[in-house]
Write a structure and sequence with these properties.
Largest interface: A-B, 25 and 32 residues
Strand content of chain B: under 5%
Helix content of chain B: over 70%
Mean pLDDT of chain A: 87
Oligomer: heterodimer
Low-confidence stretches of chain A: none
Largest sheet of chain B: none
Mean pLDDT of chain B: 84
Largest sheet of chain A: none
Radius of gyration of chain A: 23 Å
Structural class of chain A: mainly alpha
Order of helices and strands of chain B: HHHHHHHHHHHHH
Number of domains of chain B: 1
Helix content of chain A: 55-70%
Structural class of chain B: mainly alpha
Number of strands of chain A: 0
Radius of gyration of chain B: 20 Å
Order of helices and strands of chain A: HHHHHHHHHHHHH
Low-confidence stretches of chain B: none
Number of helices of chain A: 13
Strand content of chain A: under 5%
Number of domains of chain A: 1
Shape of chain A: globular
Chain lengths: 281, 262
Amino acid sequence: MPVYDQNYRPWEGRLLEKPRTWWVIARTGIRLLWQRWMIALLFFASFPFIVRTVQIYFMNRVGDASKLGDLGKNLDIDAGFFQGFLKNQEFILLLILVTAGAGLIANDRRFKALQIYFSRPVSFPDYICGKWLILAFYGGLATCIPALLLFIIQWLLSGSEAFLRQFFWIPFSVLGFSVTVLLVLGGLMLLLSSISSARGAAVLFFAVIWFGEILRKILIRIPELGLLSLQANLRQVGSVFFGTERPFEFSAVWAAVVLAAFVAGCILALRMRVRPTEVVK
Amino acid sequence: MNQEIRFFIRNLIKSRRLFWAVLLGLFPVVITLVLLAARPLLEDRDIEVFRLYPQISFFLYLHFLLPMTAVFTGSAVIGEEVEDQTLPYLLIRPIPKWRFAASKILANLVVLGCILILSLFLCYTVLHLPYGLSGWLDESGQLARSMGVLLLGLAAYLPLFSFLGSLFKKAVLGGLLFTFGWENLIAYLPGNAKLLTVVHYLHSLYPTFFRSNSGGILDMLPIKITMTKDIVAIFVLLMISAAGFFLTALVLTVREYRLERE
């Protein structure tokens, strides 16, 4: 077509009243983070899953008399099994959250990208929701996805409906607990990323999580101080989700209240830190 | 080299990193003040405040503040200059690259060492306040030894994480993985794997709480863990420190940093 034939063509798309910008932020963030470090971490995170799968296989498929059967002996596949799996993934989850989340808001602030975000149809909930979904995606790959896969593998290998009938509620518990953990830890990560540089956020994230736990260990004779530890609160709430014995002596209701207040606090603080304009004094 | 060290100390004092390091260092002091305020409550539960010092110094300082601050600042020694794209300006100065690396690590060591030592000193003093000067003096040997071990630990960790920071972009992650993953996992296992951790040598030197003859952590473990002799532990820690210094300087000399364009 000759150049002189080209003329202005109006945009023919449909203007969405509520464009799902949170989804665009999440999708782009997930794609950008799919890099060497993240793949390596997810690879390491899959080791416990592989071990548990082998254990389930030997327990179901190899007879007790076999030497290989010992690998799966003494393994009760119940709620505690899935809770234990999620607990073992804790450390790798922290590393994944640090890798994915430390720079999420810090880099936007550093490169003054917040102004660009908020000059488009992006609101605060869109922005935070999009960023949190990035953390939830990578965190979920290390926690709830493998736990749900383990459940399906056990169901398929057990060869009977008894397991499903007895533990049909476990996938909901896995999902509920994983979302709780990701809400609390993801909220904390985003908050720290908004108040510090990426490096600072990474270190502070570990500091906040370890500090409460260390304090709990030092004053172990005062069980109520466990409420100061995010990890202890999460484990206590986890035991409610899975219907297992409470690991600590303080009330699980109080643990849930502390966690809810913590998440609310994180959102409030984020609201103050994430602003389209910054007043330079 | 004095001039360079002074320059980097001045730079560090003005940085936001120092603010966070001081804040981290103040945490235990605030906690001990809270414990002091809650003394009657604690005594109701048979907890004497000054008896908490070994636990606090062991858990909060050796296993928390020391690695945390070392990862935070160590990884930034070279890493921050690369991130901020200021490394070329430093390297074109007429000073050898090794001297730049060494003086920056030393400057961080001096500043962080002061923060840690001061924090531990305050913590010890606050916990011993109710017992007067004699109570303070009684266990001051323990305090001096803890301070020495912390300084040695910092001298070992800081160059190690500086080396990581000069090699990798995600050095913080590597540092956290090493200190809170590898060291926590391996340090309490029987066998020789623990010799591959820094914290094992620090445990060997640390006073009272960790030692088996004082009802410390070693007594609580179901397995027997052997400690390294003091002199060997000091030697190994100094060797780790020297290796860290050397490798950081080597990487800085050999490597050509390609700065990213924003």
